[in-house]
Inverse folding.
């Protein structure tokens, strides 16, 4: 949708962007098409879209030979989406909080979405409650959040979410978006980030992903201190010094020793 079409649709339906939901609608159609082109969704793929808003990506996705489930928390926007796309047989709409709905929305080959800045981390964490994990995801995130996810050991951005997601996915920075391609324009840049499921077996089964994340969060709770001060280990390194694999090994060690 163009900027004028977005404003018209909002006005005609008595809607407005809600700051409380972090709503910023992408209106650059070339960028929308480019983002969808990065999604690895072959014919017949099951795709989930988080926060479709006014459908800037939805319309392009529905032109593909896929099965699309959209999750929208805003009831007004959900009504608009249902009315706009109800004739598409490959469209299903779930109304509610994606943090709660995503793990039970059904198996998905791919997930895509423009994630609200204020809840992007909880949304991403809920992604890892899915079983099996989607093999491919494309998300628009606040640039700083995307940089933390893709951060390398030893950097100030490297933290618990970096380790959690890099245990399952190879992350690819695809494009930086200025605020002027959204309505309303946010004060920060966005990053389009690709998630590619690692070919090897997942680090831990779904039942242990939260436990692994909780351990890493404990380790980073006082990141200037050595791990021996925050975890039951004899380690004189700070949390950012351990690689993703070393954190996985530490979790397995503590599990064997019944120290989790």
């Amino acid at each position: 949708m163009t900027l004028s079409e977005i404003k018209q649709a909002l006005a005609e339906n008595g809607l407005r962007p809600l700051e409380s939901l972090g709503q910023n609608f992408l209106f650059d159609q070339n960028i929308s098409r480019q983002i969808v082109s990065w999604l690895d969704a072959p014919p017949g793929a099951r795709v989930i879209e988080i926060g479709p808003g006014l459908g800037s990506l939805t319309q392009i996705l529905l032109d593909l030979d896929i099965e699309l489930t959209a999750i929208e928390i805003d009831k007004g926007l959900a009504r608009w989406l249902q009315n706009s796309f109800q004739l598409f047989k490959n469209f299903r709409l779930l109304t509610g909080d994606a943090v709660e709905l995503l793990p039970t929305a059904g198996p998905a080959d791919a997930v895509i979405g423009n994630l609200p800045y204020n809840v992007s981390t909880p949304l991403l964490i809920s992604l890892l409650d899915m079983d099996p994990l989607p093999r491919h995801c494309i998300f628009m995130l606040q640039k700083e959040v995307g940089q933390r996810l893709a951060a390398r050991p030893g950097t100030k951005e490297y933290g618990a979410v970096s380790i959690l997601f890099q245990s399952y996915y190879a992350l690819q920075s695809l494009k930086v978006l200025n605020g002027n391609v959204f309505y309303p324009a946010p004060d920060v840049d966005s990053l389009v980030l690709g998630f590619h499921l690692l070919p090897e077996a997942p680090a831990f089964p779904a039942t242990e992903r939260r436990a692994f994340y909780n351990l890493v969060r404990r380790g980073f709770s006082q990141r200037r201190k050595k791990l021996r001060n925050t975890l039951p280990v004899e380690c004189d390194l700070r949390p950012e010094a351990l690689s993703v694999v070393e954190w996985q090994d530490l979790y397995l060690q503590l599990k064997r020793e019944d120290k989790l």
Observations:
- The chain has a mean pLDDT of 95.
